[in-house]
Design a protein that fits this description.
Elements: E1 6-11, E2 14-19, H1 24-30, E3 54-57, E4 64-65, E5 75-78, H2 84-97, H3 115-123, E6 141-144, E7 147-149, H4 159-168, E8 174-176, E9 183-185, H5 197-203, E10 209-210, E11 224-229, E12 238-243, E13 248-253, H6 266-270, E14 285-288, E15 291-294, H7 297-310, E16 316-320, H8 326-339, E17 345-346, H9 354-363, H10 372-377, E18 380-384, H11 388-391, H12 393-404, E19 411-415, E20 426-429, H13 435-443, H14 447-450, E21 460-465, H15 468-471, H16 474-484, E22 487-491, H17 497-503, H18 519-529, H19 541-549, E23 555-559, H20 563-566, H21 570-579, E24 581-586, E25 598-601, E26 610-613, E27 619-622, H22 635-645, H23 655-665, E28 719-724, H24 740-745, E29 751-753, H25 755-761, E30 768-772, E31 778-785, E32 793-795, E33 799-800, E34 803-804, H26 805-809, E35 816-821
Parallel strand pairs: 1-5, 16-17, 16-23, 18-19, 18-21, 19-20, 21-22, 23-24, 24-25, 28-32, 29-31
Antiparallel strand pairs: 1-2, 3-4, 3-5, 6-7, 7-10, 8-9, 11-12, 12-13, 14-15, 14-25, 26-27, 28-35, 29-32, 30-31, 30-35, 33-34
Helix pairs in contact: 2-3, 4-5, 8-17, 8-22, 8-23, 13-16, 19-21
């Protein structure tokens, strides 16, 4: 800050300089003076609703609220520590708030961590003068599946409504009536449906809003708090895990202004119960005659090693789950290359492309690129094939903040379904496969979106989602950033995806962005590891499953991967499980682990210690909040033990050693320059595969080149639309098992089409449609009509509890689906 941007203020006799425009309440915090408050929150707009932060300002006729008053040069402020007027006003406010407050602290969930309790003790009256009956309300009111409301506890601070309106953009409860009748109420026509509802509970300064999952479960002084990082998506949210008696009671957002500020999504907040499943795997299991039985660790490890050796000539593959720590991913790829002698190791669930390989080589192991903070000052942000509301919720909040507040950064969404980005972004709709052309036009400054690009192109940020590789948009997105001198970032879906890329969990990449095809890179790691490395790239994840199903791959090591849901179709996954020798590392019994030859129990998230790398490339440490349940072990430990029994020393016997080696080798070596991106006319990124033949006749193309209905206005047999599919935030994932609040909030599967498409096909919102994927695979789903889905496309969630689409069709690309109305039977 320059001197011209500072003002001098005196607070309780202490003079200090603060940035011009600072609030009095923030200025006081700089010198350690805490002014009591309820409605104030540093990330919400000032309101002055509770009147608790009153201070005396020299020269003013009456006391002022510190949370709404900005400092001026020469201002003299006296807080409750130096002013009888301020102290008396604060005491009177507290007395007023307690008139109708139920004083049910012994049973309130907020007891022990309640600002009303603390401030009443520090600043309130010793006795009450109120003797009349307090007002009563029916309680609790179910605001949503994750929020309960006790109205009589509310102090009308409006933190919850302001968060919903300013930060999340979701309709919420509102203040009704006036005066002594004012109360928080819900609108039956606008139910609270939000992925961020738990934040309203956390920022409520009293116990008015509570979570059903934590209600009456514990007292804060009974809990042990541990700093951790969320393992659900690549946002990198900082968490506080509260546990009691080796049992997680709740998870809260932990402040980190560089990442999640003070927020997290409901999946990250409540999705921890699966690790506490009574059916959790706590001891090794081996398959005897088609049934799993408990075994000792020596027997299970010996069975695993014998199975690998028996099928060594058929090769092996390692599938790395997307919710493992950086150290786990590093150990698994080292197991594959050093002990199993293969580069068939992959952390993806989608088919790789040549263009993806080039971008991966650039991103892997590189210093952090654009970050959350850069979004606030970017000239524009281009988002390609990414629905951050569903796939990276905190990134969605940061984009929304950048677009609607402050600099009002233009956001351009390119793809087939931008989701809620459409509320504030300029949308460039494309059918799958059309992203490259759209990005090329954008780079030339064409169209409405092209005119939004900043004159200083270096201020451009391009974010490409994990689906961009399959739609042909990944390489063009990176080219766009290069061409305009902007910055590029790959935004994966799962928490472990970026760390696995850096660690070398790719069939064509070694740790730190080194390429398998580079002899110098192989020699460097061979010297570091004391082993010769295979020179040829291996199979990607879908290729491994296909090879195993065909009997061409002898062993599969599966760590945190469900072949059926992640790498279907089901028939192929089941064939792979039947024909290969399968070693599964997991803490749950699912469709994959149930058929494994050896099942080794792994620790859960709250029991693991390591690092997670978010989409920015930011590496953050996460601590173990619980002791490992049963005999569960870390994934890196199991990799080291398996390798040792196979005659290879990975040198990863301790947590410190694996952390040091992984950190050293997953960083890009000095002087390593990734290969240039293939030119636009030189291939490099394969287009989506040829569409599968739908059951209905192929429709004629529309005038705009998009696929559509027959030119005569509709085909009675249905029209073939391009399939768009990805998982929603709340889905049928095994990580959400036993999270009952989230399970109730999870929607059933649906099909979604653009209003233009609905009109052409004669489909109505809420009606039932049949989707025919060919090969006798058809489903009936309720229809949603929404402008967020591109014309010519149909969106179907990939993994809802009632329809695991991935298990039905697998990670296929370029599929076209026959869509037709279902005639409802007459009543």
């Amino acid at each position: 800050m320059t001197d011209q941007q500072q003002v001098t203020v005196t607070i309780d006799g202490r003079e200090l300089s603060v940035p011009k425009g600072s609030l009095v309440i923030r200025a006081a915090e700089r010198i350690g003076i805490t002014i009591p408050r309820f409605c104030d929150h540093r990330l919400l707009a000032p309101l002055g609703a509770c009147r608790q932060c009153i201070v005396e300002i020299e020269g003013q006729r009456k006391p002022m609220t510190a949370c709404t008053t900005t400092v001026t040069d020469g201002m003299v402020v006296r807080t409750q520590l130096a002013s009888e007027i301020a102290r008396g006003a604060q005491e009177a406010t507290l007395e007023f708030l307690l008139i109708n407050h139920p004083l049910d602290c012994p049973m309130c969930d907020k007891g022990g961590e309640c600002p009303l309790q603390d401030q009443t003790l520090a600043h309130g009256p010793a006795e009450t003068r109120f003797s009349e009956a307090k007002r009563r309300f029916r309680k609790p009111i179910k605001v949503s599946e994750t929020v309960l409301l006790d109205r009589e506890r509310c102090v009308l601070c409006a933190r919850c409504t302001r968060f919903a309106a300013e930060i999340a953009g979701d309709p919420f409860i509102e203040l009704y009536e006036r005066g002594s009748l004012e109360q928080v109420a819900t609108d039956p026509d606008e139910p609270f449906s939000s992925y961020f509802s738990g934040n309203t509970v956390q920022i409520c300064p009293v116990g008015a809003l509570t979570s059903p999952s934590y209600r009456f479960q514990a007292r804060p002084f009974d809990l042990t708090s541990t700093e951790a990082v969320c393992n659900h998506c690549a946002s990198g949210c900082n968490l506080r895990i509260d546990s009691r008696r080796n049992y997680v009671t709740r998870q809260l957002a932990r402040d980190n202004d560089d990442v999640n500020q003070a927020w997290n999504c409901d999946r990250g907040r409540y999705g921890f119960a699966s690790a506490q499943d009574p059916e959790r795997v706590l001891a090794p299991l081996v398959n005897d005659g088609g049934r799993l039985r408990t075994a000792s660790w020596p027997e299970a490890l010996r069975r695993a090693v014998d199975g690998i050796r028996a099928r060594r000539r058929h090769g092996a593959g390692v599938l790395v789950g997307g919710h493992l720590t950086d150290q786990d991913a590093y150990a698994l790829q080292k197991l594959a290359r050093v002990a199993l002698g293969t580069n068939s190791v992959d952390a993806r669930t989608w088919p790789g492309t040549a263009g993806e390989e080039a971008v991966d080589a650039r991103v892997a192991g590189s210093p952090p690129g654009p970050a959350y903070r850069d979004l606030d000052t970017a000239g524009a942000v281009v988002v390609v094939d990414l629905d951050p509301h569903e796939e990276s919720p905190i990134l969605y909040l940061r984009l929304r903040r950048a677009a609607l507040l402050g600099a009002r950064v233009p956001v351009i969404a390119v793809g087939s379904r931008p989701g809620r980005l459409a509320e504030f972004a300029t949308v460039v709709h494309t059918a799958p496969g059309g992203q490259a052309e759209a990005l090329e036009q954008l780079g030339r400054g064409e169209g409405e979106a092209g005119r939004l690009l900043p004159e200083d192109r270096r201020a451009l940020v391009v974010l490409a989602g994990w689906r961009a590789a399959a739609t042909g948009g990944l390489l063009p997105a990176a080219r766009l950033a290069d061409r305009l001198g902007g910055r590029f970032a790959w935004v994966p879906r799962r928490a472990g995806d970026r760390g696995a890329l850096d660690a070398g969990a790719r069939p064509y990449l070694l740790p730190g962005g080194r390429r398998v095809a580079d002899p110098a890179a192989r020699d460097e790691l061979a010297a570091a590891w004391g082993a010769q490395l295979p020179p040829e790239p291996g199979l990607d994840a879908p290729g491994m499953v296909a090879a195993a199903a065909a009997g061409e791959l002898g062993t599969l090591v599966v760590a945190g991967v469900d072949l059926t849901r992640d790498l279907g179709p089901r028939e192929q996954a089941e064939a792979a499980l039947a024909r290969a020798f399968v070693i599964a590392v997991d803490h749950q019994v699912n469709d994959t682990t149930r058929h494994a030859d050896v099942l080794l129990p792994a620790v859960a998230h709250a029991e693991s210690e390591g690092t997670w790398t978010d989409w920015e490339g930011r590496v953050q440490a996460s601590r173990a909040a619980l002791q490992a349940a049963g005999t569960a072990r870390t994934v890196w430990e199991l990799a080291d033990q398996l390798a040792g029994m196979l005659g290879s020393d990975l040198g990863l016997a301790t947590a410190a050693r694996v952390a040091e080696e992984a950190a050293r080798l997953r960083a890009r070596p000095a002087g390593l320059v990734p290969p240039p991106l293939p030119a636009a006319d030189g291939g490099g990124q394969a287009p989506p595969a040829a569409p599968a033949e739908p059951a209905a006749p192929e429709p004629a193309a529309r005038a705009d080149g998009q696929p559509g209905a027959e030119a005569d206005g509709g085909d009675p047999g249905g029209a073939a639309l391009a399939l768009v599919s990805y998982p929603l935030l709340l889905d049928g994932a095994s990580m959400l098992r036993r999270a009952v609040d989230l399970e109730r909030a999870t929607v059933a599967a649906f099909a979604e089409v653009h209003p233009d498409e609905a009109g052409r096909l004669g489909l109505a919102d809420g009606s039932t449609v049949e989707l025919d994927f060919g090969e006798n695979r058809a489903v009936r789903l309720p229809l949603r009509v929404a402008a967020t889905t591109a014309p010519g496309c149909v969106f179907v969630p990939a993994n809802q509890p009632d329809l695991a689409l991935g298990a039905m069709i697998g990670p296929a690309r370029g599929i076209r689906v026959a869509v037709r109305a279902v005639q409802e039977a007459a009543a």
